[in-house]
Design a protein that fits this description.
This protein has 623 residues and is α+β, with helices and mostly antiparallel strands. The chain has 27 helices and nine strands. Strand 2 (265-272) and strand 3 (275-277) form a beta hairpin. It starts with 9 loop residues before the first helix and ends with a helix. The relative contact order is 0.15.
Length: 623
């Protein structure tokens, strides 16, 4: 069989443009956005000056065709699912399960770690990998601390299991959706939700064994940034809990000197009228009117607020009674505060009017509409009620308030907000809505009731319509890099297909492996795509190689979907570089990884999946 060269020179220019784009994508000197814009701009100018003519002298690669990728259903699905995932993350819909996992690590921590990673892989099959990684990074950091392991032992496995789980269903990864969109647009056929799940689960299972039991052993024992993940450097804030008649701690008795509901908190003192109880606490039962002075990290206080335990509820309601959240003071009937809250650390400034006065005297909540949850002083341990602590310059206050009120602290001359410490607390009242919307989106896509892009868009719209996210938060979830990169990759893929470049490459593969058969060609393409995806990124690789693989399958006379599924699996093998996939970049800082760490752990995994696929695929598809 001889290779037939297309009789158009535009194909070779397209090859050159794609090759140049790949080089620039792999260079950190130029941003992905800039490279994407330039390659799309070049293709539009080139095919405008030198049109690729079809029937009736029409330009088959005009600007409308090249820009159509930016409105492709697959790309819209990816962006909409990012909004849905942001809604789950922002509302704290998965906070409770992650807290249960972290608390279960006390008895069998190693087993809990394995179970957690397996759970992450399962969740990644139905949710975009990026928000899954973001949600579970703090959980695994906590587990690493309890196991007395460095975070570097668990962070990369977290990223890898996200990727492995994502290769098992249609919506598990943006790569899968994009490949399915290209397959549909080129006429190769539609891909269903579970069409490649069986073989995907086989590959993922083999990869999971390696990730769970081998990767932690070959990763370096390097100190990471766990402190940042778990809410700071472990410094203790002094906070107080006012026990009211309907408080959940009423009647709680100390056990071995501790109060079980106050997990990860140290009770420094219990003030009961004029009498103060000091540790160790023996046979002390909390009563209405008690003031419990605790020392806790910021993370511990955050977890209490997220858990809806009601321990600080009276403080929040009291603040709401003194000022409603629209910034107006009055005697209106108060309602339970709802909406988003932001927690931030502020430093008492030198020369501040707050110095020498306590929290009640300065009227902090009246002036700022924010409440002080805790006080931290480096010089000495404090054992007193917050109302008795006279502030000093340099004291750190842990402040909670509405986002706009926290932003207003920038103009307050008495405190200096630590901008880096500002974090939004999810609103628990929206978590249930977020779960229902997510479940509806998945069910609509799985059942085939509506196309995946329709289900995703409706899910994103539901997150906004039901007040889980506002427009600003939804817009922040849309990654412009994905938008521009995928749009440019679709333009390159279209040009490659229309000019005959995809058919030319496919015929080259057929000629090279003609004597060996489709199984060998399938294996060779898998390895080549798996290498490329770590340089070019998985989304671009999938878009570029789907038409090539479909043409190769046609040349061999086999079902094109077999080769397209191969592209999906191979394009997901982005384990060997940090820029190969977003989750790799997410864990790079927390795990304190270097580029060589990804190569060391990722290359064997790629080879293992390649060998597994090469053995299983011919048997499974009957090649």
């Amino acid at each position: 069989m001889e290779t037939i060269l297309p009789d158009n020179w535009q194909m070779w220019v397209t090859f050159a443009a794609i090759g140049t784009a790949i080089v620039f994508y792999s260079m950190s000197r130029f941003s992905l956005e800039l490279t994407s814009l330039f390659v799309v701009g070049f293709l539009m100018i080139f095919f405008h000056l030198f049109p690729f003519e079809g029937p009736q002298d029409t330009n088959l690669l005009n600007s409308s065709v090249l820009l159509s990728g930016f409105a492709a259903p697959a790309l819209i699905s990816v962006l909409a699912l990012l909004v849905v995932g942001q809604g789950l993350f922002h509302s704290g819909a998965l906070d409770k399960p992650t807290r249960i996992i972290a608390s279960a690590a006390g008895s069998r921590p190693q087993l809990v770690v394995i179970a957690t990673l397996l759970l992450i892989a399962f969740v990644s099959a139905f949710l975009n990998n990026t928000p899954v990684a973001v949600m579970f990074i703090p959980v695994l950091a906590t587990l690493a601390a309890r196991l007395r392991h460095r975070p570097s032992k668990l962070m990369m496995p977290l990223s890898f299991v996200c990727i492995l789980g994502g290769m098992t269903t249609l919506i598990g990864s943006s790569t899968n959706l994009l490949a399915a969109g290209i397959a549909d647009s080129t006429g190769a056929g539609k891909i269903g939700f579970f069409d490649f799940t069986v073989l995907g689960v086989m590959l993922a299972s083999v990869g999971m064994v390696y990730v769970l039991f081998v990767v932690p052993r070959i990763l370096p024992d390097r100190e990471g940034l766990a402190d940042e993940l778990t809410g700071g450097t472990g410094k203790q804030f002094i906070a107080q809990i006012q026990i009211t008649y309907d408080h959940p701690l009423v009647g709680m008795e100390s056990v071995a000197g501790l109060f079980p509901p106050l997990k990860d908190m140290t009770v420094r003192m219990i003030q009961r009228r004029e009498h103060a109880f000091l540790p160790p606490f023996e046979d002390v039962r909390l009563q209405p009117g008690d003031t419990v002075i605790i020392a806790a990290t910021r993370q511990a206080l955050t977890e209490v607020l997220k858990s809806r335990s009601g321990i600080f509820e009276n403080m929040l309601e009291e603040n709401h009674q003194n000022q409603n959240w629209d910034g107006e003071r009055g005697d209106e009937t108060p309602e339970r505060p709802t909406g988003d809250l932001t927690m931030v650390e502020v430093v008492v400034a030198p020369g501040s009017r707050m110095i020498g006065r306590n929290i009640e005297q300065i009227g902090f909540r009246y002036e700022t509409a924010c409440i002080v949850l805790g006080i931290q002083r480096r010089s000495r341990m404090i054992r007193a009620r917050m109302s008795d602590i006279r502030l000093e310059d340099g004291d750190v206050l842990l402040v909670l308030g509405k986002p706009r009120d926290v932003e207003g602290l920038r103009l307050n001359r008495d405190v200096i907000p630590l901008e880096w410490s500002a974090t939004e607390l999810p609103d628990p009242s929206r978590a249930r809505r977020a779960r229902y919307i997510f479940a509806g989106t998945v069910l609509a896509a799985v059942s085939g009731l509506v196309p995946i892009e329709v289900a995703a868009v409706l899910g994103a719209a539901g997150m906004i319509a039901f007040d889980v996210l506002n427009i600003r938060q939804a817009a922040r979830a849309i990654d412009r890099r994905i938008f521009l990169l995928v749009g440019a990759a679709l333009a390159m893929g279209t040009a490659l297909d229309v000019t005959g470049g995809a058919a030319f490459l496919a015929q080259g593969v057929v000629n090279l492996f003609a004597g060996a058969g489709p199984a060998v060609a399938l294996s060779a393409l898998f390895l080549f795509i798996a290498i490329t995806t770590n340089i070019l990124t998985n989304n671009a690789t999938a878009v570029l190689f789907v038409p090539i693989a479909a043409n190769a399958a046609n040349q061999f006379g086999v079902d094109p979907m077999i080769f397209i599924y191969m592209v999906i699996f191979a394009a997901n093998c982005s384990f060997a570089t940090p820029m190969g996939y977003q989750t790799n970049l997410l864990v790079m800082g927390p795990g304190h990884y270097q580029f060589s760490d990804y190569v060391r752990a990722g290359v064997p995994l790629i080879l293992l999946l390649w060998i597994t696929f090469s053995l299983l695929a011919p048997w499974y598809y009957g090649l």
